[in-house]
Each structure stands twice: as C-alpha cells, then as structure tokens.
C-alpha cells in the first residue's frame, strides 16, 4: 500500500505545483495582454 501511495502522492504534488505555475503564468500573460490592448485601443480614440 505505502509503496504505491508515497510515489503517487509525490507525483500528485509535483503535478499540482506545475499546474499552479502554469496558471500564474497564464494570468500574468492575460493581464499584460489586456493592459497592452487597452493602451492601444484608447490611444487610437
């Protein structure tokens, strides 16, 4: 039981950590993109 549970828990934690990092990068990209789009949109009007 533990021989399977411990590696599975480690793998799960690594997976969750990667997902959280990707989520943060995507949120940062979306924020930067929206700021750039707003600047360019309002610059033309």
Architecture overview:
- This protein is mostly helical.
- It is built from 1 helix and no strands.
Fraction in beta strands: under 5%
Q: Tell me roughly what share of residues is in helical segments.
A: over 70%
Number of helices, counting only DSSP H or I runs of 4 residues or more: 1
Let me know the largest β-sheet: none
Count of strand segments: 0
Head-to-tail CA distance between termini? 65 Å
Outline type: rod-shaped
Low-confidence sequence ranges: none
Reading the helices and strands in chain order gives H
Give the oligomer, counting copies of the same chain as homo and different chains as hetero.
Answer: single chain
The mean pLDDT is 95
Question: Which structural class do you get from the secondary structure elements?
Answer: mainly alpha
What gyration radius follows from the Cα positions, in whole Å? Answer: 20 Å
Task: List descriptors.
45 residues; rod-shaped; mainly alpha
In short:
By secondary structure, this protein is an all-alpha fold. It has 1 helix and no strands.
Task: Indicate the topology.
Layout (H helix, E strand, L loop, with lengths): L1 H42 L2
């Amino acid at each position: 039981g533990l021989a399977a549970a411990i590696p599975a828990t480690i793998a799960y934690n690594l997976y969750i950590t990667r997902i959280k990092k990707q989520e943060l990068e995507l949120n940062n990209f979306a924020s930067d993109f929206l700021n750039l789009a707003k600047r360019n949109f309002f610059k033309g009007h």
